[in-house]
Predict the structure.
Amino acid sequence: MGLMYSSVLPVMPEQVFDWHGRPGAIVRLMPPWQPVRVEREASSVRDGRAVLVLPGGLRWVADHDPDSYLPPRQFADVLRPPLGKVLSWRHTHVFNPGPGGGTEVVDLVATSVPAAILRGMFGYRHRQLAGDLAAHARAATVCPEPLTIAVTGARGLIGSALTALLTTGGHRVIRLVRHAPRGPAERRWQPDDPAPELLDGVDAVIHLAGASIAGRFTPEHKRQIWTSRVGPTRALATLAARSAVRAFVSASAVGFYGADRGDEILTEDSERGAGFLADVVAAWEDATGPATEAGVRTVLVRTGIVQTPRGGMLRPLYPLFAAGLGGRLGDGGGWQAWIEIDDLLDIYLRAVTDPTLSGPVNAAAPGEARGAQYARTLGRVLRRPALLPVPAAGPRLLLGDEGTRELILASQRVRPAVLAGAGHPFRFPELAGALRHVLGRDHSPVLGSAASLWPEE
């Protein structure tokens, strides 16, 4: 037996086919709840090989079949030994002209894997494909030509997903790395003293690098948080000011507003708050000044709590709630400024391509949620109780008083006013939909889709 999953997209087959053939496509389609890592992307969907790493060190080696390569209508991949000796898998990707225009995307999978296991994965893949193509179409209306974009922090949680989104859209990404470059897609970056030629030929910079804020707020950890952001940002912005860079997009955080603003609605025009993280973010944003003063369009992406089981807050909460041991943190009364990871990537894509966007931009979903509501929603999505509150004393053992106050018990009622004013669409404006998507619990059909079993020939 096998599975057929199809949906209809409002773009031409050539565009859909080309998207699948660009670097980053397999990364964008990989469900985040699955413990699978992309070791190697296929160099071509005609005859390339992709390698995925599964739990226990197992490798999923898939070769593309040149005999099934019929651009722009189809291509296929086949699982090879050693795993292919015990598990059958042939996946044919078909792109037919839609009945009323557009493209009917059809996945035909001949496999011994039960179809019930595959439906959620292919629903996710089709949603990702539709969302990414829509984001690229919006970007193309204001930036029709592909850009060369330099990215710091490109190997991190956000950076790896963002570079995949950018390359599938046809943009060229140059990763700014601290080790010796491994190819033309990388350049050596010395954070405090970047080379004068670092940004030669670069249209835009996305600056994501910085030490993780997770952990106990010891003097040394706080020093790392500060120095990894402020000095390198100022040095890179100064270099951008001297180059032909058109846009400088820097990561920032909703920590700008302080740890506890009660029920106050916070927009980009709100004053900064108090506390260590507010001080860091303010200095971090100020460090982009050389680019702004030189006339480079500068965007500061004030990011909320990113929702993905691959990292951030949801990574430790997911197994806890899945086991029925979850609950609110503290009294649950604080506001959580959250955002689904793909919505964050769309904001970065817009920031780098939209010439009308500049200054601080709140990257937080419009659907508000207090801590208690977040816990209840996560429990409902996983169909588990969420009745075991975590007292503040627990996080204090790991983070200390200051870290607990600024990270766990923070209350920030953040609104994305700039994006709302620009008519920006969110893929997941409400929390339940975001969690269902990233945790593989969205069982509703993709718009214009169908899934069915089909006999293996």
The mean pLDDT is 93.
